[in-house]
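Quick question, first post here. What does this chain look like in 3D?
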Amino acid sequence: MSFKKLFTYKTGTFLVLTAVLFFNQTMAQERTFATKGITEISGSFAYSSFTPVSNGNTSASTSIFTLTPQIGYFIQDGFEIGLSSGLSFLPGVTFVFPSGGNNTTILGLFFTPSYNFRIESKSVFPFIEGQLGYTAVSSGSSTSSGFSYGGKGGIKMIIADHVLLNFSAQYSAITLNPEGATERWGFNYLTLSIGVGAYL
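> Answer (accepted):
Ran it through. Tokens below.
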């Protein structure tokens, strides 16, 4: 399946799931976050543009569009399983359009089991999350891919009815091996992030 088809399928699936969950929200008004049967959803869409400057000379600008959906379901109190394309530096499907250059598509899909701790506060939930999945990059006729993993920890705060604010730190080991590689290619990174979400 092409990256464009994967992007379209993934976006459509996320929008359908969000609509269904929103429709059923009235059935979950009395539910408490981080308990069995709760669904958590989050995501964002971002645009950025940067222009390199070297020795006073400006190079071609690059535009980046990023989609980062994530969904999780509590199978037991505190324990959540989820699917994510949300990485802070390489999140989801990223289209990079260098002016006059090859288009680059980066895809990341991850299984994200996590545990949300319930403490005395009813609005603050520390959490830890594992990330296991697949990453791939395609630019022109070249492709690279591999198994990637990472971990995330932080807190989730209820700031309004069914609305969450997340603070987290994340370490990821991203693998992007070219065809025929016998050793790992890619990068490791640590990032701090703030995000929003909802639970139903």
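Residues 3-23 form the longest helix (21 residues).
The longest strand covers residues 142-160.
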